[in-house]
Fold this protein.
Amino acid sequence: MAGRLEGKIAVVTAAGQGIGRAIADRFAEEGAQVWASDLDAAKLDNPAFADARALDVTDTGAVDAYAGEVGQIDVLANVAGFVHHGTILDCDEKHWDFSFDLNVKSMHRTMRAFVPAMLHRAKNTGGTASIINMSSGASSLKGAPNRYVYGATKAAIIGMTKAVAVDFAARQLRCNAICPGTVDSPSLQQRMTELGKKVGSYDEAFDSFLKRQPMGRIAEPREIADMAVYLASDEAAFVTGTTMVIDGGWTL
């Protein structure tokens, strides 16, 4: 069923690779006008994107200027994030502040910048606007080893998502969080390479992740993107404040 996002204007952060790229590509496939951004603009090589440029979501001035240029939108997909590896003993204030700035405050920045125009867009179109925040199964849903500050940031995203949802439901602005499990991505591959140095090999590191997966595999980025398409579409017009878990049963 193509064209599910026909006529919608969507902004996607961290659209250069992994989940963000899959979401931006799927949005474009479904007919959305996609404004794609990433720290590395060279990765935004899909000609179907309406606009592709570098954006540092930790820079409030840059985010505000970007939102002012884009104008009214229907969909905001906040995907930028960082996975810190370690316990509380490995997390000093510098690590804590960086993780919260990129994983949480960046979403605050983009939502604060875009929400006014999204409310206008929803009122003008008679439809709903949709914010999609990327959280994780490793959050308030489940504790994961060596994900101390990462889990804290992803739990904060769930709380922030619900707060925005309840504040703006009556004005037809929806806000939902997606909570993936382990997803095949350049980020995961990099982490597997680093872990492989400690446990013996990349394959051993990867096997250790697979053993934690009830379904015996990890997710593909497109599987997460398909949920984002649903949340962005009119099919989800009555869906807000939810945490959509896509983890193959990992949080059970």
The longest helix spans residues 93-125. The first strand starts at residue 9 and ends at 12. Strands lie at 9-12, 33-38, 51-54, 75-78, 129-134, 173-180, 243-246.
